[in-house]
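#onboarding

Welcome to the new folks! Below is a worked example of what a typical request in this channel looks like: someone posts a single protein sequence, and someone else replies with the predicted structure as tokens. Don't worry about understanding the tokens yet, we'll cover that in week two.

Example request:
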Amino acid sequence: MIKLPPFTTPSGPGLPGGSSQNLVENIQDTFTRMFNEVNARQLEADRKIEEFATSTEKDVHGTMIAMQQADLSLRLFMQVRAKLTSAYQEIMRTQM
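Example response:
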């Protein structure tokens, strides 16, 4: 399962709690961690498929579960990416 860090109050210039650079780094770290977890699930599913194809012991349930977990984590990751992209575009459209 993709684990997100606890929500923190955004901080920036003029806001208590830090700078906007810290917020950007936090978002980058979270996104990188999510990407790595999705990649690990994909690799695990690939390993299970290869094991299923070559092994004499067929673990159909384990293979299907690994494939579904990989699929769901990828879908979630793509939805989060789409929301972040949409939020970024909305921020860029706002006028100061």
